[in-house]
Specification:
With 452 residues, the protein is an alpha/beta fold. The protein folds into three domains: 9-122, Probable tRNA modification gtpase trme, domain 1 (Gyrase A, domain 2, 2-Layer Sandwich), CATH 3.30.1360; 127-208 and 384-433, Up-down Bundle (Four Helix Bundle (Hemerythrin (Met), subunit A)); 218-373, Rossmann fold (3-Layer(aba) Sandwich). It has helices at residues 31-39, 90-102, 112-119, 125-136, 140-150, 153-176, 185-206, 209-217, 231-239, 282-297, 316-319, 361-373, 388-409, 414-432, 438-445, and strands at residues 9-12, 21-27, 49-55, 61-70, 81-87, 106-107, 219-224, 257-263, 266-272, 300-306, 327-332, 349-352. The strands form two sheets. Strands 3-4-5-2-1-6 form a six-stranded mixed β-sheet. The longest helix has 24 residues, at 153-176.
C-alpha cells in the first residue's frame, strides 16, 4: 500500500447489504472541489450536513443524500473528507461509488483511511490498531479496552517509559562526549535505578498480553465431567439453543463442541467435551483424548458434577490444572436433592445449578466474571491489553534493557550501553509507530476492512 497520499480515495464505509443507511467515505485533496461539482457551487460549511440530490455524470439522480464535509486536519484522516449518507440499498451504494470512480477518485484499499490518519498524525500506531479491536470487540470488557487504547492509554504508558529511558540515554551520552571522564558511582546508581523502573513498567505491560488474547479471541472455557453429568445440557442452556445432542445414554458426546457466547461482560469460547470415563470403550477413549487436549489449553474450567451421585476422580493431567483461580464446580441436578453433597475439592468455588431449569445460572455468571476479571493485570483505572505485535516489541526492549543493566553493573563502555538503550527505544517506537517501516505498515493495515 505504497500509493501517494495526494490521491483522493473513496469506499463504502458501512457493511455491504441492505440497511436503512449506507455511508460512502471520500478523503483527499479533491474533496472540496468534488463537493461543489456534485452539490452546487456554494462551499459546504465544515461539519454541517446538507440534504441534496446525488446526480451521476449523466445527470441522473441516484439518490437523495446527506453530505458532510470535514476540513483537514479536523477529520478522521487529517485530510479534507466527505461522508455521503444514502439509502442502504446495495445497488444505490455501488452506483454512487462507481460514479465517484468515474470522476477520477480512486478506490480505497483495505485500511487506507486509518493509515492516512496515522501518517497524518491523528493517531499513533497503537491507536490505529485499536480501531480494528473496536470493530471486532466481542464483549463489554473488550470494547472498553479498545476504547481506552483508541484514546491513547497504551501510548501514555509507553510515553512515560520512553521519557525515562531518554533521560538515561542523555546522561550516558554526555559521558561519551567526555571520554576522559569516568562515570561517577552515584551517577551509575541513578542510571541503574531508572533502568530498573523502566524494566518494571515494561514487564507490567508485557503481562497484559494474555489478557489481550482473551479479550480478542474469547476465554477458552472447557466443560469437563463424567458421562451423563449434564455437560451438554449445560452447553445448550448457556448457548440458548439445542447445540449438542442430549440423551440418557452415557457417552453421547464423542467429540468436542465449541461455541462463543457472551456471559456477563466477557466472551467465552465454551467447549463441551466427551465425558471422562475411567473405563472407556475404544471410540470413547478417542473422545477423552481430545478432552485432555482441550483441558491442557483451557483458561477456565466448568467441572460439572451430577449432584445425585458420588463425585468421580479426574485424570491426573486434568486434576493438576484445576485451581481456585480457574475452576467453578457445578453441582448439577441439585434441584433433586434437599442438601448439597460434599465437594471433591473444597478449595474450589461451587455453584448449585440445574441445566434442566436454568436455576443457578445467574450465580454462575457472577463466579465466571470474577475469575475472568482476575486475568487482568492491574494498570490503574485503565484496561491495557496488548497484542502479539506489541508483546514481541516489548520482549526485545526487555532484552536490551537487561543487557544495558548488566553493562552498568560491570562498568561497561558507555558507547555499548548507549547502543542497548537505543535498541530499547527503537522497540518502544515500533509500538507507537515512531519508525519508518513501510513493509510493517503494509502488513498491519492489510488486516483492516475496506472503508476503514
Amino acid at each position: 500500500m505504497s500509493r501517494p497520499s495526494t490521491d483522493t480515495i473513496a469506499a463504502l464505509a458501512t457493511p455491504v447489504g441492505t440497511s436503512a443507511i449506507a455511508v460512502v467515505r471520500v478523503s483527499g485533496p479533491d474533496c472540496a472541489a468534488l463537493a461543489q461539482t456534485l452539490f452546487g457551487p456554494a462551499p459546504l460549511p465544515p461539519r454541517h450536513a446538507r440534504h441534496a440530490d446525488y446526480r451521476n455524470l449523466a445527470g441522473t439522480v441516484l439518490d437523495d443524500v446527506l453530505v458532510t464535509f470535514y476540513q483537514g486536519p479536523r477529520s478522521y484522516t487529517s485530510e479534507d473528507s466527505l461522508e455521503i449518507a444514502l439509502h442502504g440499498n446495495p445497488f444505490i451504494a455501488q452506483s454512487v461509488l462507481n460514479d465517484l470512480l468515474a470522476r477520477g477518485i480512486r478506490q480505497a484499499e483495505a485500511g487506507e483511511f486509518t493509515r492516512r490518519a496515522f501518517l497524518g498524525g491523528r493517531m499513533d500506531l497503537s491507536q490505529a490498531e485499536a480501531v480494528m479491536d473496536l470493530i471486532h470487540a466481542r464483549s463489554q470488557r473488550a470494547l472498553t479496552a479498545a476504547n481506552q487504547q483508541l484514546r491513547g492509554s497504551l501510548g501514555r504508558h509507553l510515553g512515560e517509559l520512553t521519557e525515562g529511558l531518554l533521560l538515561v540515554l542523555a546522561r550516558v551520552e554526555a559521558y561519551i562526549d567526555f571520554p576522559d571522564e569516568d562515570l561517577p558511582a552515584e551517577d551509575r546508581r541513578i542510571v541503574l535505578d531508572e533502568l530498573e523502573r523502566v524494566l518494571r513498567g515494561t514487564a507490567r505491560l508485557l503481562a497484559t498480553h494474555h489478557y489481550g488474547e482473551l479479550l480478542r479471541d474469547g476465554i477458552k472455557t472447557v466443560i469437563i465431567g463424567e458421562p451423563n453429568a449434564g455437560k451438554s445440557s449445560l452447553l445448550n442452556r448457556l448457548v440458548g439453543r439445542d447445540r449438542a445432542l442430549v440423551s440418557p445414554e452415557p457417552g453421547t458426546t464423542r467429540d468436542f463442541i465449541e461455541e462463543r457466547i457472551i456471559l456477563g461482560p466477557h466472551c467465552l469460547r465454551l467447549i463441551d467435551t466427551a465425558g471422562l470415563n475411567p473405563t472407556p470403550a475404544a471410540l470413547e477413549r478417542l473422545g477423552m483424548d481430545k478432552t485432555l487436549e482441550r483441558a491442557a489449553e483451557a483458561d477456565l474450567f466448568l467441572w460439572v458434577l451430577d449432584a445425585t451421585r458420588p463425585a468421580p476422580a479426574l485424570p491426573p493431567e486434568v486434576a493438576s490444572r484445576l485451581s481456585p483461580g480457574n475452576t467453578v464446580v457445578l453441582l448439577n441436578k441439585s434441584d433433586l436433592l434437599a442438601s448439597s453433597p460434599p465437594l471433591p475439592a473444597p478449595a474450589l468455588s461451587a455453584v448449585k445449578v440445574s441445566a434442566l431449569t436454568g436455576d443457578g445460572l445467574s450465580v454462575l455468571t457472577e463466579h465466571i466474571t470474577r475469575l475472568a476479571d482476575a486475568f487482568r493485570q492491574d494498570q490503574g483505572d485503565e484496561i491495557i491489553a496488548i497484542n502479539a505485535r506489541h508483546a514481541d516489541a516489548l520482549r526485545r526492549a526487555t532484552e536490551c534493557l537487561k543487557t544495558a543493566r548488566d553493562k552498568v553493573d560491570i562498568h561497561g563502555p558507555a558507547e555499548l550501553l548507549a547502543s542497548d538503550l537505543r535498541g530499547a527505544l527503537d522497540a518502544f517506537g515500533e509500538i507507537a509507530g515512531k519508525i519508518d517501516n513501510e513493509r510493517m505498515l503494509d502488513h498491519l493495515f492489510k488486516t483492516f476492512c475496506i472503508g476503514k
